[in-house]
Amino acid sequence: MIPTTTNSSGLTRRGFAVGAGAAGLLATAAGDFARAQGGPLKVGVLLPRSGAQAGIGQDCQRGVELAPAIFKELGLPELAIMNADTETNVEVARARAEKLISDGAQLLVGAFDSGQTTAIAQVAEQKGIPFVINIAAAPQITEQGYKFVFRNFPTAAMILSDAFANQKELFEATGVAPKSVVFMHVNDTFGTSMQQGINAVLPRFSMPYQIVEQIAYDPTARDLSVEVAKAKATGAQALLLVSRLNDAILITRELVKQRWSPMAVLSMGPGWYEDQYLKTLGKLSDGPMSFVPWYDPHKRLSKQLEAALAKAYPGINMNTNHVFTFEALLVAADAYKRARSSDPKALADAIRTTNITDNVSIGPGIQFNDKGQNDKLKNAAIQNRGGKLLTIAPKEASNAKPELPMSAYDRRG
Amino acid sequence: MAAEIYLNVAVSGLLTGLVYGLMAVGLSVIFGVVRVVNFAHGEMMTIAMYLAIVLFNGFGLDPLIMVVPLAAVLFALGYAMQAGIINPFITRPEHSQFILLVAMALIIANVLLIVFGPDARSVQTPYSFDSFLVGPLIIDATKAYAGAATVVITAALFGFFRFAPLGKAIRACADNYTGALVVGLNVKRLYALTFGLGAACVGAAGSMLVLLVDVTPALGPALTLLAFIIVITGGLGSMPGAVLGGVLIGLTEAMAGLFFTPSAKSMFSFALLVLVLLFRPQGILGKRPS
Questions:
Q1: Do A58 and B119 touch (CB under 8 A)?
Q2: Second CATH level (architecture) for the domain A157-295+380-411
Q3: What is the mean pLDDT of residues A371-383?
Q4: Is B217 in contact with A50 (Cβ distance < 8 A)?
Q5: pLDDT tens across A47-74, in order?
Q6: Domain A38-154+298-378 CATH assignment equals 3.30.1360.10
Q7: Distance from B222 to chain A by nearest Cα, in Å?
């Protein structure tokens, strides 16, 4: 037997080799451990932070900013947020998604708009990176058989079904209902999906009103005077709308200028409940009802999120943008915690089995069907009153009674 | 549909078209004399709109009162741009001028983005929601004020070019560059003055347009494109043509929205442009190249 060489400290060559091997194994294991549980999950958040939808994109960002502190309290893992601006442009959204993935994003969240979201979904599916949609309603996004795309937001058909059910509830509660409406909608992916959905869904609800005219318009239009004049000329009693923020402000201005106060403004999209809408128009922002995916004010996490928003952004009302962006990140953090890995496939599998009941939005919680769609979400009806957003339906989630008809614009002082 | 709606929409289109016309007059004046196409036109307009917002929010100064001061500020900016940056490019190929002005447009848009952020901004004056009831007509007060101011400014500009010695000198430069040099006119200074005057039109138009349209840093290219459609329809280099083009585009968009679908408003203004290019390539009031 060849004696091993021993140095003065007693370390043998064999001992050194064993030690080095053990250290190597430990280092490898530590690396795996870090990848599996340690470092924060890199989440690319794509939002329209500039362009026509900038106001809403930046509002969604508030939901992102509030998430870390609440996740810490919930015992969820840390997320490393990588922000990207889609510039309210479908092609830019696609390019930014590709860039985020090449920069190391392990999961994507976004992108408020159906057109941009569709483009990102294609990229995510192609690259095999999980994509959790915060807001986008075009049904086709989760009808493509995608394996990496998940949506915790209702489809156009779900929004419309709930909207008509809630409208009937409100008409019955107040004893007031319009007999005729004009349907004005943006002509983008979301608006067109909603328009097609209305034609399919409306006959099932035997609503008290008839749609006397449908007016499609460009969401980036600088002037909507013609559209409002055309709507007014129909003599309809109320407005049914699918709009965005800037056009909602333009339409309200034109309603006032053209001296037309409809009995009701019934919105089935964003715009009319945004803080920028309330602040820009003051008293003139009172009255519109929005039938939208919303938060349940009675839920524990809703109260926590609302308190965090009030602390971070005093004077800002909590809305769809904050809630669903926050929940998209909640889905990501929850999946990362359960997957114990940032491997895209493991993350996607974990998201598929999501079952979050301690959430914010109305409904039993966050679960996804085999298409990646949360089909259990419920909408609410909210009304702007005195700069606040009050939930007026469904009854079980409401915190105020509806006011219908809304007060005339020329009698608001 | 009742007859008054056609009248209401026509008047609204006419008034909006007048403001568009003033913006396009600036582009037309610059091209007519300096022979440079200002691809930063819309971005210069957004500068004026943001200045109007700053003055309104900071000091409560009504944009309509600020029309002349803002025109003066933009005049200075235009003069400096021409004298300092554009003049060396006058004799260079058109693609060099194009690249220069597109670069300036990008710089302006991005500086505005850094300073003001991407949010849409607007001003809300006490008369923002007012309208006049004239028989069956409901006339938007803001558009009426802006339209009237446009008529006054355009008339003053016509008068300047027709009767003032300086205006005549500028027209001389436009008519015969070599002749102007021979008779001893300081052409470079006159070019800078012309660019300044074009920019002043943009300043005045921007001050009024901010009452009608929300501004974002990304608005510039849309305004540049609109100004191009108007001046090509009316006749590149023709001031009356620019006003006429503005009114025609304003009316076309309004009536197309009423008779067909509002989604197709821009399609109809482009269709008008195509028709003009097909049957009168020099524009409605443009001169046929000799």
A1: yes
A2: 3-Layer(aba) Sandwich (3.40)
A3: 94
A4: yes
A5: 998 877 888 898 999 999 999 999 999 9
A6: no
A7: 10
